[in-house]
Amino acid sequence: MIETFGRDVRYAMRWLRRSPGFSLVAILSLGLGIGFNSAIFAVVDSLLLRPLPVAAPDRLVEIYTSSPDGDTYATSSVPDYLDFAARAGLFDGIVGYSPMFAAVNRGDRARLRLGEVVTGSYFQVLGLDAATGRTLLPSDDVAGAPRVVVLSHAYWRRELGGDPGVIGRTLRIRGQVYDIVGVAPAGYTGMVQMLSPDLFIAVAHTEDVEPAGIQSVVPSPTGTSRLDRRGQRWLFLKGRLRPGVTADQAQANLRVVAAQLAAEHPTTNRDRQVSVIPTTDVRVHPQADGTLRWAVTGTMAAVGLVLLVACANVAGMLLARASARQREISVRMAVGASRGRLVRQLLTESVVLAGLGAAVGLAFAWWFTRLISTLNLPIPVPLAIDVSLDWRVLAFTAAAATATGVVAGLVPALRASKPDLVPELKGESFARRTGRRRVALRDGLVVAQVAVSAVLLVGAGLLLRSVGAAERASLGFRPEGLAVVGVDLGMLQYDDARAERFFEQADQRFRAMPGVVSSARASRFPFSLNFNRSNIAVPGHQQSPDEMGRPIDSAEVSPSYFETLGVAVLQGRAFLETDRIDTPRVAVINETMARQYWPGESAVGELVYRRTLSSGQPLEIVGVVADHRRNTVGEAPGPAIFTSTAQSPSTYAVLAARTSGDDRALLDQMRRTLLSMEPDVLFLDSQTMKQQVSATLFPVRAAAVLVSAFSGVGLLLAAIGLYGVIAFSVSKRTREIGIRMAMGAGRADVLGMVMRQGLGVAAVGLIVGLGLASGAARVVAGALYGVGVGDPVAWGAAAVVLLGVTALANLVPARRAMRVDPAQALRKE
């Protein structure tokens, strides 16, 4: 059997060498289809399939605590974590962690680094050993313990040259000296998918850094910091189950502990539920994973359609080649070869063809994955997406190549292995007897290719139109001319008073810059990647001001915020310089919140209550401003509340200035000014508002580019397939064309006849494709903004492009038909 297969492979290679033109086109067609699929699968493998590089990842679970605002999968406080770890009996260990930003001093100034703040048993529970030195220990995570840091392997190699002598040296983090005690193992990139931390420090020293992630705060009767406030939740939890314990059993165990904590600490833990999910079922976060999986599935479906077009294309080419081999096949059957033996031989040839296509596809996938790795995404932190071609990608490529070879070659093999022996052996024209049936089958394959291309073109058109509509949408403010820079002076050990003086001085310097018309600061400007919400209780909508209230979009802003942003004040006033920390607390709300809570009335003068760490804080509404987009271009207006920066001092602020000139030049000037004031200042946000808005459109823009690329490749393959059908038809109708021309048909008549045939096939494919696209368009409906799924421009453009490309594919064989010499065509027969 193996020897027979080897002979078939050698014969297939000789056959491919005899037809280099056919082989090249077929291999490139399959290479494009398989390469696209392998490259996208490499991304899927990185995002969804690859397990954490830790010991026994199948025994790890995610532990979430619900929050009062309905978030089932929120974080936990340090005191709750300690109680879970001490009282839960079904775990070999529970660890806490959070992404964090750190100001690391090396050389002439501080650098912003991404890291993880982790509990002391983190590395032990995960089963990770240090590449050099040691990992963090539980003894490093107690009050008063010396400050130590573990470096990531990538940071150690990139910044320190992989020097093993770094153990015992120091780093300065937020002005504090940390001893380097170890380097994490190679390939470990932390707990958060797609992020790559540079360093790991113990939770005991969390005040030296800025945790980033899901954070919620409710009044805590006791505690002075995020380490001991039970109501300050910011820590993600992960547990390792004991052998034989299931996630459901662990969840039941922890819910008993949660009920005990609710009874002991009703102010902070009432109505809190615990959810336990296997880590293998979570990639980023349960609430984000659904969107991620939908996007990945949609992309794989789109790229799978490209492979389907390539299969149909090669199947059509194999049908054409089979017609030229009928005499060879008939002779082999006449001398005793069975039909099954011939089918195996022909399928081997198509699988070999697909294998060569897979080799080309892997080269394309390698290039594509390298391109993905070098992309700079419009976000303030670098992503770590390892899209290397590992064994899973290679196995997928091999399976895809085998399936492609079988799918593309099966029908041609079955057709070719059933010849009419007597006519073929007599030398009679088999084409006259069966050519029409064979061309009809090839027509059907081309119809399928054109239909699939139409689906992809409509999807690309809708997404491109949506991006265009989003870019032209009214945001409720003017992004042009606005630059924003975010800084956290707390990382440099500034206190609130010193930070306030810095911000006031920066504001004065910004206003003095040429072309600057206004400047402001806030805890958050629109379209920032972070989300700020405050629990607001509105009398009449809650039983009492002591209730938690409802989470509402919020920001602390300076008096000139609305002027700088370009948002109109509709009622009352904006903040004033006289709104200070020692005056009554005031708030400004947007018109949606005013309409929702005080319909038909004025909200000015009403009181609301904001929940803080200690109590419900009363705020008097002094103004109502126009609605404006705050998070995404396509969001529906929602309630928002603004408070004064002077009444909520902080070491963190986003500074903004508006210019009548070049906003990019203004941004550079703002950065230089801040560095001249504080050489170690770190920029958390630093871009023009137009760039910040554009960053939120990146996902749909990337989807539009990808689907456009897929549709372009699919259309190219469909055009090649249509060209092959028409060229084959012209070659079989040479005598007919000669007779028509001998009887008086002109060249234009022949051109029209051939073009009608090709455009007829394309038109059928277009009709079928548009019917399929009407259903497929609903899949992307949720990602569209400003256009409907029936947008006539997108559909019309798809039809025009498809018919235009197929007309060009018809033109070459049609012009060849025009040049047929009637005399030679008649003598040929």
Provide a descriptive summary of the structure in words.
A hairpin with a 2-residue loop joins strand 6 (170-173) and strand 7 (176-183). The protein has a 6-stranded mixed beta barrel. It has a 6-stranded mixed beta barrel with strand order 16-17-22-19-21-20. The radius of gyration is 34 Å and the shape is globular. It is α+β, with helices and mostly antiparallel strands.
Distance between the termini: 44 Å
The total count of helices amounts to 23
In spatial order, strands of the major sheet run 2-3-8-5-7-6
Tertiary shape: globular
Radius of gyration: 34 Å
Q: Which whole number gives the mean pLDDT?
A: 83
| Most strands sheet | 6 strands, mixed, barrel
Q: Helix share of residues? A: 40-55%
Strand content of the residues, in percent? Answer: 15-25%
Alpha-beta classification: alpha+beta
Question: Which stretches of 5+ consecutive residues score pLDDT under 50?
Answer: 424-438
Q: Count all strands and give the number.
A: 24
Summed up:
The chain is an alpha+beta fold and 829 residues long. Helices cover 49% and strands 17% of the residues. Residues 424-438 have low confidence and may be disordered.
Spell out the key features of this protein:
single chain; 829 residues; alpha+beta; 6-stranded mixed β-barrel
Topology:
Blueprint: H1 2-18, H2 20-49, E1 60-65, H3 78-87, E2 91-106, E3 109-118, H4 122-126, E4 132-133, E5 148-151, H5 153-160, E6 170-173, E7 176-183, E8 199-202, E9 210-211, E10 216-217, E11 232-233, E12 236-241, H6 247-264, H7 266-269, E13 274-278, H8 286-323, H9 326-334, H10 339-373, H11 391-416, H12 421-426, H13 430-472, E14 482-488, H14 496-511, E15 516-522, E16 533-537, E17 550-557, H15 561-565, E18 569-572, E19 586-590, H16 591-597, E20 607-611, E21 616-625, E22 640-644, E23 652-659, H17 663-677, E24 683-688, H18 689-696, H19 698-732, H20 734-742, H21 747-776, H22 792-818, H23 822-828
Parallel strand pairs: 3-8, 5-7, 17-22, 19-21
Antiparallel strand pairs: 1-12, 1-13, 2-3, 2-6, 2-9, 2-12, 4-7, 5-8, 6-7, 10-11, 14-23, 14-24, 15-23, 16-17, 16-20, 18-21, 19-22, 20-21
